[in-house]
Design brief:
Mean pLDDT: 89
Order of helices and strands: H
Number of helices: 1
Largest sheet: none
Distance between the termini: 97 Å
Helix content: over 70%
Strand content: under 5%
Structural class: mainly alpha
Radius of gyration: 29 Å
Oligomer: single chain
């Protein structure tokens, strides 16, 4: 049978292992979030360019119809 001190020591070791694993997982999440952020940034930039081009064409169409 385990003594109280042995039990406490075993639980401390288990907690240390869990804390280490949590630290690894938190780092993985941060990396994943960074990659997701960069993917979203690329998509956002593409959509902004598309929006700006559409606004430019709309302004051209509006200006040409006013001149006519």
């Amino acid at each position: 049978m385990m003594t109280r001190e042995q039990y406490v020591e075993q639980m401390k070791k288990q907690l240390d292992e869990w804390n280490a694993k949590l630290g690894e997982w938190e780092q993985e999440v941060q990396k994943a979030q960074a990659s997701v952020k960069s993917r979203y940034a690329v998509q956002i930039e593409a959509l902004q360019r598309q929006r700006d081009e559409t606004i430019r064409r709309l302004n051209e169409a509006r200006d040409s119809s006013q001149a006519a």
